[in-house]
Amino acid sequence: MSDLTIPERAFLSLKWLGLQEARQGNREPLARAVIGVLVVATLAIMLASLATGPIAVPVLELLPHVPAYFLSALEGAPEGVTLRDWIVVMEIRLPRVVLGALVGAALAVSGAVMQGLFRNPLADPGIIGVSAGAGFGAALFIVLGNAALAPLMALFGIYAVPLAAFAGGLITTLLLYRIGTRSGITSVATLLLAGIALGALTGAMTGLLVYVADDQQLRDLQFWGLGSLAGSNWDKVLSAAPIILAMLLGVPFLSRGLNALTLGEAAAAHVGIRVQRLKNISILLVAAATGASVAVSGGIGFVGIVVPHLLRLTMGPDHRYLLPASALLGACLLIAADTLARTIVAPAEMPIGIITAFAGAPFFLWILLRRRGLTGL
Amino acid sequence: MTVRKRNHICSLTAALALTAAAMLAPSRPILAEPARGQDASRVVAIGGSVTEIVFALGEQDRLIARDTTSTYPAQAAALPDVGYIRALSPEGVLSVDPDLILMLDGSGPQETVDVLKKSGIAIAGVPEDFSSAGIVHKVRTVGEALGVSDKAEPLALKLEADLAAARSEAEGQAAGTRVLFILSTKGGRILASGSGTAADGILKLAGATNAVADFTGYKQLSDEAILSAAPDVVLMMDRGGDHGAGAEELFSHPALAQTPAGKNKRLIKMGGQYLLGFGPRTAEAIRDLAQQLAAIRS
Question: Is B116 a member of any domain?
Fold first, then answer.
């Protein structure tokens, strides 16, 4: 590099930033840079969230002791740390941040995959009723888990509710896909409308459960309907993490297929993509991750639509980059929203769904106005 | 190495690390046995009646915080508020640095209670039962938790006698009066309390009849259910928001208007915590309610 002139170096840095190539249509370097920035941002936001709350805790002093906690080498608080501070970070804030990251990543990636699959920027598990289906599955177990469904509850333990949510999400997605697709072509208008109908139907079935629920279950249902990460603990992390991580691990293998699919199903098949298999796996993964997220945090909306959109605007639609970047930005945004949710009305809390809807709904409208032509409605 | 492969490896490593972290996270108790907390000097009271009992015992100097439902007496309302009894945030409670938490039945959510238990703070559960015996039991429980059973016993006996007196006075005054307790009228929908609720309990103590005792808990009433309940009087909590509908507005409801209560515009409003708290003021509330019912009937 030393024999280069200053303008040449400047040109190279620009190129590294992807600006030059972006103009020529190649946004890969930019995408890589965005992912790099997002990795740093995610870590920074996690740390900031750990340090934020009604109680001032010296988080940086606690961090070196964290591995010992997980390796079970530690009884009580480590030396020099009060038990209260330790509990606040390890039992309240850390599980919440981890769960927020998992759920945010799952929701954003689900949105990105669905949008790729349906070739439409408006597809999102929340909008087309998949979350409502998952919600019904979870509500069924919240309300009947100790009665009619007790044997299943005993069999699956903490995984019963996420699995039920998964089943609910999967059935809804499959139904939607069946209804929306005719002779291999997915009609977006049909899909969205069918989504509304299915959402209303599953919402009504959840509503029926209200009449058999007791007061405590009603409170759980209501709380959970608005979406919230309150009450996060390691049990919830454990119940959702395997499913969400399996999905996050699986989706990178879909990116080539999803990229090819943007050309249309016939074209994708011609370049060697097994389209039906791609669709099946995508639907399975999205339903699983949406189900697990809904089970632990309720109906948190708009993450799946806002995140992939913001990213497509900056780094282009290449799924190889879009999917990991969506996971990171989803995690960032959800942790940030949750930190707001638990601080603005402290010591009480606000459901996080309120915050994501406040931020997401106007954004959704903006997309509609901006890309009216794309929706085909 | 292609970009794709590298991406796979990156996400694989990240995910594995996260899985490992999640799998290793144990949810074990940190302190085995919490202290008894009888000499606690930093007490948080969760539940309006619990707070009232602490004041009635003269132990209010040990209180440092309360929940949103604890608004009586006025000094209690001046204490820091750690949130609503059913939606407590663990960090909100821990932030006042308590050494004893008095928790009325139904405090939660469960996750919050679990974390608070782990933090080694003494937690005393106070059982809730919507009866005279329940109130007396509450007083004894709170007294024991605070280590002042010697003060609690006389208070418990006094309340027991007072409640019995109030009930015998009320007897006959309100007998056979069908009372519909309406929790809220939000959006024109009547949310009423069936059996097993605090409202049902106070109606029993005052010798009146709950007009909708055929279901448990709080339920929305259809117009026909309201008509068949045929209440003589409507009872509501006296406070703002959707609870605050006036008699005119309330009885403009098409179904309520056709009931005996609606035709005669009979509405009684009483303070929520006073009426439904089941604490030291309940004997007074019984007399108050019975007198108002008697006055309305004559």
Answer: yes
Domain membership of residue B48 as a residue range: 43-168
End-to-end CA distance of chain A: 53
pLDDT digits (tens, 9 = 90+) for A74-101: 667 787 788 888 889 998 999 999 999 9
Of all residues in chain A, the one with the smallest CA distance to B90 is: A92
Q: Are B234 and B252 in contact (CB under 8 A)?
A: no
Indicate the number of domains in chain B: 2
ipTM summary value: 0.70
* Distance between A175 CA and the closest CA of chain B, angstroms: 31
The alpha carbon of residue B21 is apart from the nearest alpha carbon of chain A, in Å, by: 7
Q: What is the domain-level CATH number for residue B94? A: 3.40.50.1980
In a domain, A29, yes or no: no
* Alpha carbons B202 and A355: distance in angstroms, whole number: 40
Task: Assess if residue A211 is contained within a domain.
Answer: yes
CB atoms within 10 A of CB A15: 13
Cα–Cα distances in angstroms (integers) from residue A362 to residues A217, A358, B265, in the given order: 32, 7, 46
pTM comes to 0.78
Interface test mutation site (partner A, options B91, B107, B118, B186, max chain A beta carbons within 10 A): B91
Q: Residues of A with CB below 8 A from B12's CB?
A: 249
- Tell me if B9 is assigned to some domain: no
| Residue B12 pLDDT level (bands cut at 50, 70, 90) | low
Q: What SS3 state is found at B2?
A: coil
Cβ A248–B15 below 8 Å, yes or no? yes
